[in-house]
Automatic annotation (TrEMBL):
Pfam families in the cross-refs: SpoIIP
Keyword Membrane among UniProt keywords: yes
Residue numbers spanned by region Disordered: 154-175
Species per Swiss-Prot/TrEMBL record: [Anoxybacillus] calidus
SUPFAM superfamilies in the cross-refs: Zn-dependent exopeptidases
Parts of the chain that traverse the membrane: 21-42
Protein's recorded name: Stage II sporulation protein P
Keywords noted in UniProt: Membrane, Transmembrane, Transmembrane helix
InterPro entries noted in UniProt: Spore_II_P (IPR010897)
Amino acid sequence: MRRFRSQQMMITVNGTSIKKIVMLAILGFMMMFTVVGVMTSLKPEYRITSSSVNNVATHFPGEAFVHLFSFENHYFSQVLPVEKRKPKYSSMMFEMMTSVNLEDPRSLLGSELPGFSIFDSEIIVAGEGLDYTNMPYESAPPLEVMLAEREASVESLGQAEKSSEEKPVPPPKMTTNGKKVVYIYHTHTHESYLPALKGVTDLDAAFHPTVNVTKVGEKLAEEMEKRGIGAEVNTEDFIDKLVKNGMKYYQAYDVSRKTVEEAMTKNRDLQYFIDIHRDTRRRNDTTVTINGRNYARIVFIIGGNNAKYEKNLQIAKDLHELLQQKYPGLSKGVIQKKGAGTNGKFNQDLSENAILIEFGGVDNTFEELFRTASAVADVFSEYYWQAEKVQSPASGQKK
């Protein structure tokens, strides 16, 4: 009798448990369909997108994911340093909700102080004199500045060409045989230099529709051609397109991106893509004297928010090291830019061989800039032909 009653009680208990499980399952499905329904019925601007998921994921360091894996397999935790085997999830949650990193006060100051966001950049390789107090930056000019009429000294370009000439470049041992393998363009086309602008002294007004960074790009392409490397230079006025289409200055990369994509489609021989810009820093930060001659210093900018970041970064590092050997002090270093307040890609996600180079600052002369363009072409040619030998061991003959 007792056994029968106990079995009856177990059936009742089990029956109650089964009912609870069924009810919970039903409630779970209802909640899931409700959440999915709400998410799909929201306006597009309020829906969760891949970019928003990516932004959340950026707050979680790789160590956190390895730590999660270690719950299933303890061997995963052994690959982490001892001090990082127990990540601080509370700090990560706080950063995700407030965008403030307790270990980096710049994350708080950057959102409170105007202009402080330029210090969000990270110095990957620091050249001579580069630190967080003299980071390169570009000022976004207001519309009236971009449209203002300014007189430029066109004659000075010819003089700069003659004055900047180094030793004659010997005929190249190898060439690309007429193929254009380097593509040079200028996203912020109007960026110019004060010495070439008559009567202009305000650094925020160093812009011109024709006498600008495109002249540096043309010189760089010319010097590469002398060294057997076919280079195509695009001088399209992207800023003019911005103005005509009522777009914001930060959208210049969207405009130049289309041009780069078209170039890649038309010419499958293109291997390297160089976007030339100008720093807003003053002369003491952007000029170096090498063997008694002044050069405009350069700095490499790599976007941290692109899938090809590692490859782009390696090229910038390699070129920086080569410049250090032949032209000490010419390269200020390599800087990574990503996150809020910056493009973070700079079209570098289009190719593993894409870099952005800041040539000089607002106070540099075209004589100094052309001299630097020649030096960069000199070093780049060494890098290019060495890479060609590595990829094609039997490429000792003319291309």
